[in-house]
């Protein structure tokens, strides 16, 4: 039994996308609100980037721009830490392209 393979399917602006993570992964915890930094994390081999909207320096627009930048990296999971356990915030993060939410 191979329990290290995880499949996640999410809705994005371009339709449905499937991303796969095999084995343990490396996640960047991004506190700086710069979409170019998000791309560097993905190009650098991180398996996931968690955009921290609770303690990071992000406006909602900047955080969602970071998520959109990760759409072109099929092996990097976009994740968001929302500032409050509010269903509206969580839904907006998922609609923006996050595959995971930390509340």
Question: Explain this structure to me?
Answer:
The model is unreliable at 1-16 (pLDDT under 50). This protein is of the alpha/beta class and 103 residues long. A 4-stranded parallel β-sheet has the order 3-4-5-6, covered by helices on one side. Helix 1 (35-43) runs parallel beside helix 2 (60-69). Strand 4 (48-52), helix 2 (60-69) and strand 5 form a beta-alpha-beta unit. The chain is built from 3 helices and 6 strands. It is globular and about 30 Å long. The longest helix is centred in the middle third of the chain and has 10 residues, at 60-69. It starts with a strand and ends with a strand. The relative contact order is 0.21.
List the helices and strands and how they pair.
Layout lengths: L4 E8 L2 E8 L4 E4 L4 H9 L4 E5 L7 H10 L7 E5 L5 H9 L4 E3 L1
Parallel strand pairs: 3-4, 4-5, 5-6
Antiparallel strand pairs: 1-2
């Amino acid at each position: 039994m191979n329990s290290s393979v995880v499949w996640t399917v999410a809705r994005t602006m371009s339709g449905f996308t499937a991303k796969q993570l095999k084995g343990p992964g490396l996640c960047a915890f991004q506190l700086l609100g710069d979409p170019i930094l998000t791309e560097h994390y993905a190009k650098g081999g991180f398996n996931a980037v968690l955009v921290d909207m609770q303690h990071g320096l992000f406006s909602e627009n900047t955080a969602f721009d970071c998520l959109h930048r990760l759409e072109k990296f099929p092996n990097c999971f976009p994740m968001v830490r929302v500032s409050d356990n509010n269903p509206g915030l969580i839904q907006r993060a998922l609609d923006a392209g996050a595959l995971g939410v930390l509340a």
